[in-house]
Amino acid sequence: MIRLRTILTVGATAAATVALAAAPAQADTVDRHAHAHFDSNGGGSMYVDVTRPATGATLVDVEWQKSACGLTDGVYACDSVYRTAYDVPVTRFTFALTGARLTATVPYRETRRHCEIVNEDEVCDEPQESTGTTDLQVTWTASGEPTRERRTGEDGTVYVTTSVNTTVAGSGFGSAYDDPASSFGQLARVRTVPPAA
User: Fold this and answer.
1) What is the rounded radius of gyration, in angstroms, for the C-alpha atoms of the chain?
2) What single DSSP character describes residue 36?
3) What is the pLDDT of residue 196?
4) Please, which residues bridge with residue 60 across strands?
5) Distance between CA atoms of 31 and 131, rounded to whole angstroms?
6) Residue 169 needs a FRET pair 20 to 30 A away by CA distance; which of 2, 16, 126, 141 works?
7) What is the mean pLDDT of residues 94-121?
8) What angle do CA 144, 146, 148 make, to 5 degrees?
9) Nearest partner of 53 among 97, 99, 8, 87, judged by Cα
């Protein structure tokens, strides 16, 4: 998710005989974001969001899920696996609007569920919880020209977002994703421009 920094605009005022010294101008800040969405019939779905803020650590959020459903002894049942990791610091992330690359070892939480349809009602076992780690790799490659959007917040802060759609390829949780038809991504650079005080 794109996180926007809110900065108040302070105007300089002066009375007839009193002048207020202007505060030093605040510098622009730039946040960078990368999103990838992967689908696979057999390998599960994976969602990746990377945020590199103007200050602080680069963080990644990852969600992965896979379900297998079918009839067993006349009972329709689904076995589902969900793996999630949020706000994981990463150090190997390169970013440009022409392309980006992420390599990280990510600790995750896993939830497994078994559900059956009984008399048109879904009956599920107690979820099974565990933890693990996965080696995550994602590559973004720009597939078009960047677009720019400029907006001004109610407080006067200006946000300039430059973004580009991308193809994506990657791997994680034991699955490899290299089919452009079942995946998509986006890179975005958000510049926050505070006016001089």
Assistant:
1) 23
2) E
3) 62
4) 50, 88
5) 31
6) 2
7) 94
8) 150
9) 87
